[in-house]
Amino acid sequence: MGTNYAAIANASSSYLLLIFFFMFGLSHEQDFSISSGGTLRTNETLVSAGGVFELGFFGVPSSGNRYLGIWFVDDPQKRPVWVANRDNPLTDSTCFLQVRDDGNLILEDRRLTPMIVNSGALSAYPNTTATPIDTGNFVLQAGANLVWQSFDYPSDTYLPGMKIGWFGLTSDVPTPYFLSAWESSTDPGHGDFTLGVDYKVANLTVYRGDSAHMDIGYWDGKRIHLLFANYSNSFNFSYFSNPNEAYFTFTTIGNYSMSWLVMASTGLIDEYTLSNRGISMISHSLCEASDFGTGAASSMNNETAAAKLELSGEKDQELPIGYMSPEYAMNGLFSEKSDVFSFGIIVLEIITGKRNVAFFDTDHSSNLLGSAWNLWKEGENTELMDSTLADSCSSSEVLRYIQLGILCVQERAEDRLSMFNVVSMLSNETMALPYPKEPGLLRYVSRNSTTEGESLKIQQGQGSQTVQSVISVISPR
Which segments constitute the Bulb-type lectin domain (predicted)? Predict the structure, then answer.
């Protein structure tokens, strides 16, 4: 029987095809994961299965430092959404990420002691696989068992499916899952600002250090209200709360493939979207409350009366005289609530059409705050209203805005509204306003001209202070 060379050739071709596809499959697997004993080197990357995210090393030219990070494949700038070694940069140009035989992820270069990436959740399994996935999460798994994931250690980017909040509230040391801003635009290290959850009131809150800095959203029991300019409304937020945990998470809705939030090193929150046109920034969170004082000053033709406080032991400082809070005018103390006071003055000035510093009632004993307080108590709000508002505002609206302004200018800082509450009350006309107490700095006892400016003696509580005013030019920031 003769040899069938055609059959042998066909069989050989089939085997070669099988070997080719087998090898292709292995190489494709290596493209998006590494297993025990595997290594990712400096110029290599792992791409998620759907081609959305890429994991690899990136450098900072100004310092020469290198970091392990994740970025969008379609982002030409390769802005990281997560950084593994934020505060421990690699300083050598040759870097390695390895899944060690004990199942842990190791990051190292030729100069430093190896760092365990998953140090917060060490592997109990010898054989693990590390994989970036299409959500932007980077997971370490042993079969079906999740050992560690990057979503539990956020950087400055809030991606869909990520949880921001508190976990282990019933334990001795609850664990916060908070965003943390970069130190600067070129330094991924932990900066001053974080984005977390005030679980007592279900707010998304920006913190500066350990102190609440600014609320950017609140949960009304059904949905979140984000305090953004030009907000795209592409977020579907959910809030989960029980005795042990409280957190926000979200999915993307609408016309975008994905939407996410990024905390800038300044503490502001930016919204980004991914669509078929690429990545774009949609909006910024609210400006900081501290912009109100200088904003008011710079709006007055860049010329305003500024107070030079002559307080014992204090250096000379300048502020718009009509916008100073009592604690600053009397003791030189300043806080975020000082700017709430300034905002309240602006509200009352808009309603009346008059400047606080130039307003005195008929007996010259009460300023704008005193007149607003007296007329509001008597229900005579229309007497205070600027006549140009008569056709656009009802008397009930004017009364509400006057009450809101008075709530902002309370004598004690702790009695004033927060800017978060102000925005909530302005956007929700059915929200009840608390009854205000008497405002601060109601009366100017004397008003005397001097060669250098104008001296105002302010009566507040049991004491008084003399404030010397000068004219200053305020330049926009």
Answer: 31-153
Query: How high is the mean pLDDT of the chain?
Result: 77
Let me know if 308 is exposed, middle or buried by CB neighbors in 10 A (0-12, 13-18, 19+). middle
Neighbours of 124 (CB within 10 A): 11
Q: Are residues 189 and 278 in the same domain?
A: yes
Q: Is 457 domain-assigned?
A: no
Question: What pLDDT, on the 0 to 100 scale, is given for residue 72?
Answer: 96
| Residue 452, domain member (yes or no) | no
Region label for 278, one of left (φ > 0), alpha (ψ between -120 and 50) or beta (otherwise): left
- Single pTM value for the model: 0.61
The tokens describing 286, both together, are 């609210």
User: According to the model, what pLDDT value does residue 366 have?
Assistant: 59
- The total domain count for the chain is 3
Q: What is the CATH number of the domain that holds 427?
A: 1.10.510.10
User: With bands split at pLDDT 50, 70 and 90, how would you rate the model's confidence at 426?
Assistant: confident
Tell me the backbone φ, ψ of residue 424, rounded to 5 degrees: -60, -45
77-to-42, 52, 87 alpha-carbon distances in Å: 18, 15, 22
CA of residue 284 relative to chain centroid, distance:
9
